[in-house]
What does this fold into?
Amino acid sequence: MAKIQVTELVLRDGHQCHIATRMRTEDMLPICAKLDAIGFWSLEAWGGATFDACVRYLREDPWERLKTLRKALPNSRIQMLLRGQNLLGYRHYSDDVVRAFVKKSADNGVDVFRIFDALNDTRNLRVSVEAVKKAGKHAEGTISYTTSPVHDVAHFVGIAKELEAMGSDTIAIKDMAGLLTPQATVELVKALRANVSLPIHMHTHATSGLASMNLLRALENGALMIDTCSAAFSEGASHPTTESMIAALQGTEFDTGLDIGAVQEVTAYFREVRKKYWQFETEYSGVDTRVLLNQVPGGMISNLSNQLKEQGALNRMDEVLAEIPLVRKDLGYIPLVTPTSQIVGTQAVLNVMTGQRYKSITNEVKNYFLGQYGKSPSAVDATVKKLAIGNAVAITCRPADLLADEMAKLTGESERFAQSEEDVLTYAMFPDIGKTFLQERLAGSLAPEPLLDKASASAAGPRFAPSEFKVTLHGETFHINLTGSGHAGEEKRPFYVSIDGIAEEVIVETLSEIEVSGGSSGGKKKATSKAGNAGRPRPTHAGHVTTSMPGTIIDVKVKVGDKVNAGDGVLVIEAMKMENEIQAAATGIVVAVFVSKGDTVTPDESLLEIQPE
It folds into this structure.
């Protein structure tokens, strides 16, 4: 039989699962020479959430990361995860953007493109596969594995046949949440081997505790390629351990031929690196068989817990995990993988936080019901669909068929801050944060979110101090509940608190903002501070428009004097990477707007006011 091939995931999916994709390029480079010499079939190092995390949090140019890793890994195939027509963003892009993105990715160093569609709608994969083949690179057509009343072996075999006919070089089974069991693995791999002639590449997460067994059963039944991760970032929500699988297969017909000692050196290095990122660790990264029901992917769980932590709502994680499968069913049993995992996850959070299911519905859920992500696997809930889009008719064609070419328009919009086609594509992926990133890069003001020193943080009253307490000031006692905060490292970091049940926003300015004045005989320091909720009134009637969760205003759709009807969209907020349209609760005239684009907002404050009729 052919040699068993191994793809190592430590440079991408491993740290995405355990530290929310926060590893910086500078911490990858020192070990690249050792990784490059081991002889893995490929090293997954780009794509997935990497692009977003680089721009949003690490303040690194993701294209520079790719080029740098290409130079540091001259003998290895670099692999990326590509979301078909979604690329690395959260919407579908026109075909010319897809072709440009694939070409630039190939030019800058990607050798293997693992291409998937969240809905397994193969129409959304065709252009990407064609572009990869045109670039002379390896196209890995991918099945997004899930379980539901409509996802059986025959369903997945049909997808694999389409991927083979499309020109894929290999077929990947992407078990992004760790839902496969050993028996299900046997049945699926056997069926694929009987119906397609391409090598089968097995990718699974260890969340349910079954992944290593699944890899072995896959190999025994004809799979030739497996994904593993260095022990420093393996297991739990991540993947089977590279060293363990090498040892398990050694001396068998499936021997990988890899040097376990060399991999252990890599692990020793990354164990030390991981300590730097302690603040992004999550308690939800171990074995959890509840995933067999909630189906939350390994790469999503750490990000979800961090996002809830930032909102002061980590204690509601179990409620969110219970709500996710209910939303998934309402949406026709869609697989949970980016971007659908974020779409379902964010809607579940909204359902929990508002206390009423679908009281607030994200734009992405509305677009999904409109068919703008592709064909749903099965019938959707008619009542929820009606709430989301009313009587609007969903499209049935390939969504990108309705999109005009975008590259010329995107180039024109970004000409003041984009210096290359790669920059234009960064702007295309994330127009708001991408634009800010490119502008700050031009100004030389990029700064990553800070890495906290664990010892100092613990000694100073840590980041994880109690969020609910009482404060006595001048003889009066106040009940304080910290409900959320902005990102650490912001020059003016907002903290959202409830004081005796009344919402407030406190702005804390960093020490670098302290103004120094005075003469040579000695300076006098003056610290500035602000309190209150940015001057916005608290909601007192139905005409006051509020948000369900902290976020950033990305669009103000009305102005003072406009007539609006109850249910009209008046604002758009970005929360948890998803857009949520905020609607008017009353019919009337807009008499005040308290926010602007880019403002950070929190619940229990009025964003605009409508004078009801």
Summary: The first strand starts at residue 5 and ends at 8. The longest helix spans residues 260-275. Residues 511-532 have pLDDT under 50 and may be disordered. The CA atoms of residues 157 and 387 lie 35 Å apart.
